[in-house]
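User: Hello! I'm new to structural biology and keep hearing that structure can be predicted from sequence alone. Could you demonstrate with ABC transporter permease? Please show me the input and the output so I can see what each looks like.

Assistant: Of course. The first part below is the input, the amino acid sequence of ABC transporter permease. The second part is the output, the predicted structure written as tokens.
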Amino acid sequence: MTHRRGRLVWLLAVAFLLAALACGVTVGASGLGPGEVFRVLVDQLPGVHAGGAVDPVDRAVLLQIRLPRVLLAALVGALLAVAGAGYQGVFRNPLVDSSMLGSSAGAGLGATVAIVAGAAGLAVPAAAFAGALAAVALALAAGSVGRTSTSTLLLAGVAVGLFFSAAQTFVLQGATRSLQEVYAWLLGSLAGADWTHLAQPLPYAVVGTAVVLAHARRLDVLAVGEEEAASLGLHPARIRLLVVCGATLAAAAAVAVSGLIGFVGIVVPHAVRRLAGVSHVRVLPLSMLVGAGFLVLADTLARTVLAPAELPIGVVTAALGSPLFVWILRTTRSGGAS
């Protein structure tokens, strides 16, 4: 990729995210227009007063409801996209995402147990986070990462996912009153997001993302082949383990506060790879920008299409991502055939 094209891709990704954020904070049921939103946001800067009166209710809606929800959508989208790109780099497969090692099934079981037990507040996200980490840890142990092939690890992840899904079904058999709440969580939603929900996943998001980004160049070397990577003094097994752990931490932090949201971790890195090339030095950070913008737009659609009712955000991402996923399958098959 030429330097000029690379710079253009970065500018487009940043512009896409900024446009999505602007759309997210200005579109909604309240009467806030772009001018009012701008004045409220500028007024939050120290020593700055934009002038003009804004209704206190509209101000509260923007600062306490809409803004934290938009920022949380951006954070979740960025985490799911970078986790998916990290998994795809480890397994050298564009059809892999962070759910392949059972993290989604584990999060679903954790959230289901918490909801059925009557937990409230932050207990459900905490249980989902713990369930996701437990599922991936079990898949890593079963697949003996570092001593067997990546395909064996993926099969172990599928087995663990099926086991956790079966356990979730068993829990739901005796808790029919909680079915609606459980399925609402499983379909994904950012409704009710506030600044607490935004702050909760940040420590894990920072650590997980930092680990994945720090291994970008090593993933590029690993893509050439494990023997070549070993000849350069790298340890492929260690790289795989660290990237899987970092990506899992990032994805678990996202799923814990949003529920299960599909397709972001698959289609966003693949689309970025088509525009920016295959180097993970570019793919990983660009996936974060595009994933953040994509989920902000998806959440904006989720809360406005049927307003005042809301669509589950997982339904929106599935509707947008399914055609793209079919396209990925077709182009991947064509590439493999050639």
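User: So the tokens describe the shape?

Assistant: Right, they're a compact way of writing down the 3D structure. Reading them back into a model, for example: The chain is about 75% helix and 0% strand.
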